[in-house]
Design brief:
Blueprint lengths: L34 E8 L2 E6 L4 E5 L6 E6 L6 E7 L2 E6 L3 E6 L7 E6 L8 E7 L4 E6 L13 E5 L3 H7 L6 H5 L2 H8 L15
Antiparallel strand pairs: 1-2, 2-3, 3-4, 5-6, 6-7, 7-8, 9-10, 10-11
Length: about 200
Amino acid sequence: PNEPPQVHYGRPEDAPYDFFRPDTIFQLPLQLTEISGLTAMDSTQIVSVQDEDGLLFFLNPATGQVEQQIRFGQPGDYEGIEHVDSTLYVLRSDGLIFGIADWSEASPSVREIATGISPTCDAEGLGYDDASDYLLVSCKQGINPDLKHFREIYAVPLEGESLMRARRPSAKSRHELTNGPGRLCPALGIVGSHSGHWLDTPP
């Protein structure tokens, strides 16, 4: 089979942009001294979150100016933000994710997503994989002592929990659906025939 191209960004010079020669530099307001995440809404607006207060900051990417602030939660240690379809997702360091819809309304709709990730993970980053429709949570601290030389990343499905529960009916909680490879694989429908299959292509 044709192998996908191998891309390694281990060094700054391997990246698709020059870290040392940015196109633009913005001086953000003091409120964003502790900025901890950015996500693009479209070509005219980006949204940021800082790690001390439950506020969304809508920025103009052409000027760096804050155009709007919206509160979504109480003060906390917020570490990442992702825009997926019509929802903004914000990660808190204890593993809790906030799904924020209707943010342009007077009272945004906010739902809490309990990921089951241990607070000792000290969640530090949030990403999104559109191929699987999963949010990806990276940990600052390792949870599994067998993985002390690896960086742990957890996949949080935005849809499909009911399917995982059907595959793992013995799970007593959301955490037990996927806490360990022997449970994760059945929940995601991963079987032996998938061994060696590229992760970025359908099974």
